[in-house]
Specification:
- The structure holds 2 protein chains of 2 kinds.
- Chain A is of the alpha/beta class.
- Chain A contains 17 helices and 25 strands.
- Chain A has a 7-stranded mixed sheet with strand order 10-9-21-22-23-20-24.
- The longest helix of chain A is centred in the middle third of the chain and has 19 residues.
- Chain A is globular, with a radius of gyration of 23 Å.
- In chain B, 44% of the residues are buried.
- Chain B contains 18 helices and 11 strands.
- The radius of gyration of chain B is 33 Å and the shape is elongated.
- Chain B folds into 2 domains: 213 residues, Growth Hormone, Chain: A (Up-down Bundle), CATH 1.20.1250; 239 residues, Vaccinia Virus protein VP39 (Rossmann fold, 3-Layer(aba) Sandwich).
- Chain B is of the alpha/beta class.
- In chain B, helix 4 packs across helix 6 and helix 6 packs across helix 8.
- The chains are: A alpha/beta, B alpha/beta.
- The interface between A and B is medium-sized, with 19 and 26 residues.
Amino acid sequence: MDRRKFLGRLAAGLTTLSACGRSTDSSAPPLPPGDFIGTSPDIGHLLRVPGLPPARETQRVPVVVVGAGIGGLSAAWKLAKSGFRDFLLLELEASTGGNSRSGRNAVSEFPLAAHYLPLPTPEATATRELLSELGVLEGDPHARQPRYDERYLCAAPQERLYYNGLWRDGLLPLLGVSGAEQKEYRRFFDLMKGFKTRRDGRSRAFALPMALSSDAPDLRALDRATMRDWMLSQGFTSEHLHWYVDYACRDDYGTSSAEVSAWAGIHYFSCRSGEAKDAASDAVLTTPGGNAWLAEGLARSIRSNAGDRFLNGALVFRVEEKDEGWLVDVWRPEGARSLRIEAKQLIWAAPAFLVPYIFTGNEDAKRAGKSFSYAPWLVANLTLSRVPASRPGAPLSWDNVLYDSPGLGYVAATHQHFRQSTRETVLTYYRAFSRFPPQVARQNLLAWSREECAETVLEDLERAHPDLRQLCTRLDVTRIGHAMARPTPGSIWGPARRLLAADGTRLRFAHSDVSGFSLFEEAQYRGVLAAERTLRRLGKRFVSSLV
Amino acid sequence: MNHALLFSVFIVASCGLAYELIAGALSSYLLGDSVTQFSTVIGTYLFAMGCGSWLSRFIDRRLIARFVQIELLVGVVGGFSAAGLFSVFVWFSTPFKLALYLAVFLIGTLVGLEIPLIMRILKNDLDFKELVSQVLTFDYLGALAVSILFPMLLVPRLGLVQSALLFGILNALVALWALWIFRDRLSTHNPLALKCQALAALTVLVAGFLGAGRFTAFAESQLYADEIVYQISSPYQRIVITRWKDDIRLFLNNNLQFSSRDEYRYHEALVHPGLSALPNARRVLVLGGGDGFAVREILKYPGVESVTLVDLDPEMTRLFSTAPLMRRLNDDALNSPKLVIVNADALQWLEENDESFDFIVVDFPDPSNFSVGKLYTSAFYRLLEKHMNIGALAAIQSTSPLYARRSFWCVVTTLESVGFKTAPYHVLVPSFGEWGFILAGRGAYTPPEKYDVKLRFLNEGTTRSLFQFPKDMARVESEVNRLDNQVLVHTFEEEWREVLR
């Protein structure tokens, strides 16, 4: 069987699985129009084969930051806030923000990937500093219970679950779940509460940023099993509880609970200790455009402190350490020319898997980069002519999840609109292909047409919204092949991640990969930390954001 | 003769089933829950027929005369059953269900007497096998005929009241016919009296039938009171206006918004305690209130130079600025040169404009869902505050402090949480019940010493009493209603569910 055939079969398999045996109805309305948006796999994949032309021009700058996702933006934010302006921020895409970007149409702004930030923990000092700077955290940023701008807190109703043909408040299945299972729910959450409040010396057991977590041996041992196996070893057998935990792992890590490290799984449930004066502790901050406001806030701050230090549409294709500095070769598809940048210090804020493709030398880092695996994601933005009916049951919420779905449900962009009435809306649908090996699912996702992607999204959601095809006026698809690092057993406390986390003489890694999983707080922490280490090395004075 | 009598069995059976169907239909029409109504009416009716059949054993003599009288009685009672029950429902406080089951039982008993008597009358002419076979055949055929005619022809063409009277006439005709057929056997039984009774019954029934059209129209107009004079579905809501005599009512999505008989109480209370306390008010904003009544009250103040009305639904403002009836009700307020009408989402408009006002009327629908609930949150009141001049007041309709006490005080608590001083008050609007409003401003509020405008309801004395809350409406503790909790929507839903139960 050749590769194409194999992929074809896999595609068929994926479709059948997601469709639950539903046959395609020839009388169904045609697919809504739409495009692939958000990412540029064609440009990124130029790295696969050598042959980009050598640079004819050279530019010198003391500090280069590669990658303008949250990690790179945060590094530049800290540099700029400290009065350091001599840096350049390189980004492959035409716009900055990475997974925290948004799109916009006549109906609403909508997220292209990341869409919420939980209330920051007490130890997430940089996050609190940023929120305070953006005016969303009011008063003392170090307060145990700060006040947050009501407009940024997720509006009620926050979430609902489609289970047994009915939408219900909340994400835990409760209707028709036995008393014994509900007892397991309580025992599980009590256990997580124990982890949440546990302290070893000055460290929380599971801190966010994770670098501040306790390294007690019994906790580190959790990184050796999968979440599912750990739950089974603790006597948790409830099917619904396993679904819920698996959902959480897929939602945050793009990886099923059968593959996620138990340390990461427990981290999800026990790290979020943020509180607010006027809101529930499980509140989250969000906007119609998801987390784009955070990336845009960082970029705005950088511009006002350091001017325009951005070079977008810039593919870094070769990096070499030479003469106590760096040669960074950049391909600019627009204008089709290469550029060499000579820098003293390098902050690598792009994903770790790219290191082996781009670095010359640095064999340890290349080996470490190779050990990471990534979850591919499909994100679809569905523009609807009106909010789909959900009677009987709970009304449209911000986060809307379908039980036993291959997808992760959708968020409604208009939910955070401060409007008297909502008719049209944009739903952002998420799917991590956690049921298949990431490499296979990624190739498959790349091979799919926009129409195939649209079909599988509609099939999943039509179970809950039979009228969706009629309502959908546009369906755009974002494919993110390497959306996030998968925190599999051993990846958290293993050597590869810790190698990237170490300080270097002229090189620092600043990406959520360095934490092992993709959360805003992690990316920001790694970016700020890399910037502070760089400033220290350059002998620049600064006030740390991390204490 | 036999054939004639068997045909009358057919008619009698038709009438019997017809009364049963009419009672069932009428009760489900008036009481709802048709499964229960039909089930209980049919059960009662069949049981009563059993009673009638048993009672037939006590009729020993003068069978034919009794049969004629029973037919007349069935005709009159059954014929007027629908009209009578309608009247009981509309005009009398007598328990309707009691009257219904009494009538059903009476008719059922009389109908139950019919067939045994007919069989006994015919027993000398036919042998038992033939008798049972033929009588019951025609009995069931009659039932079949009516069960098909009733929904397809009779109810749509005649209505329940007239259908019942038609069957009453048929019963009376059967009685007359029996008098003719058995004229030989009846000669000893004072046939003249029977004939008079039959003619009297027939006359009453025919008169009833002819007058029924007018009766039904009258009774139904009493029941549904209100003739729908206007209805339209806009993209935002269903607008219905009904009228009965001088009472014009507006319903939005089936919720009563005003009755023209007492809306002055609501709108005077909404506007004047606030606006009369602001002698220097020049610029006024009205949010919601597309009916123009609040604007009508505001325009009574010559000092007011401009009024801005922001209502989401262009259909509402179009209707109330063009329809002659509506223009009469709101004194043509929506065509005032001082008024600017903006059809926009109030939240969007407040966000995108920086105009500020001396007095703001907030007259949104009750917080019955999460969309409207946003208009009662601290975030909304913070936005509202930005549009208030120094010394300005906002008057906010805040549902009923009696039926939805926690909801009302939740709005007060929410206003206070963003720094407003509040003055809650309430007023009795008969078509709504006890209704609540809140005045909100940056400083303390003092009720006006006097009103310089012409009012029908308010005066200085009554105004002071509006701010007194009796024990059953007194303040209760409440959470702040925020976008991220929307506690008000939950509270409101719970409280009104209790009221409507």
